[in-house]
Amino acid sequence: MPQYSIRDLAEEFDVTTRTMRFYESEGLLHPSRKGQTRIYNDKDRIALKLVIRGKRLGFSLAESKELIQLYNPKGANETQLRRVLDKIQQQKNALDQQIEDIRVMQLELEEAERRCLETLGDNNNSNP
Questions:
Q1: What's the rounded mean pLDDT across residues 2-19?
Q2: Is 28 helix (H, G, I), strand (E, B) or coil?
Q3: Are 43 and 3 in contact (CB under 8 A)?
Q4: Would you state the torsion angle of the CA atoms of residues 69, 38, 25, 76, taken in this order, to the nearest 10 degrees?
Q5: Which sequence spans correspond to the domains of the chain?
Q6: Residue 4 and residue 8: Cα distance in Å, rounded?
Q7: How far apart are CA 71 and CA 77, in angstroms?
Q8: Model confidence at 122, in pLDDT bands (50, 70, 90)?
Q9: What's the confidence (pLDDT) of residue 127?
Q10: Residue 23 · residue 48 · CB < 8 Å
Q11: CA distance 102 to 107
Q12: What percent of the chain has pLDDT over 70?
């Protein structure tokens, strides 16, 4: 079974060793130890990959941890996949709301800008 050092995985996934230790403290990674040295296995490597992917998708660490814990190496992982789909839908809904909020803010800014320009135009026209 392949083994990895903290530096190996940190370099592979472009994270700091401090990040790796944080994920360990959060219960996302479970390296064995040889003295003070952390030894990671394939399961840790996959968990780290899933955490990083989850972050890109907007999942919290707690959500990523939940999804990792649902993984069953001997099963079809239907429960895990359905939960991932739920999380994806939640993220898409949140993004749709953010897009709408941005559109509304953009309209409000344009209206405020228009009023300011009108007022400035009125002030310039009233001065001889």
A1: 96
A2: coil
A3: no
A4: -10
A5: 1-69, 77-128
A6: 6
A7: 6
A8: confident
A9: 60
A10: yes
A11: 9
A12: 97
CB 42 within 8 A of CB 61: no
**pLDDT tens, 46-89?**
999 999 999 999 999 999 999 988 887 788 889 999 999 999 99
Mean of all residue pLDDT scores within the chain:
92
Both tokens assigned to 4: 């990895």
CB contact at 8 A, 22 and 55: no
Contacts by 90-99, CB closer than 8 A, 24 or more apart: 91/57, 91/58, 91/59, 94/58, 95/58
Amino acid letter, 71: Y
pLDDT band for 126, please (50, 70, 90 cuts): low
Residue length, the chain?
128
At 30, list the tokens: 């479970």
* Distance (Å, whole) CA 4 – CA 27: 18
User: pTM to 2 decimals?
Assistant: 0.75
Helices (H), the chain: 6-13, 17-25, 42-56, 61-69, 78-126
Assign domain 1-69 to its CATH architecture: Orthogonal Bundle (1.10)
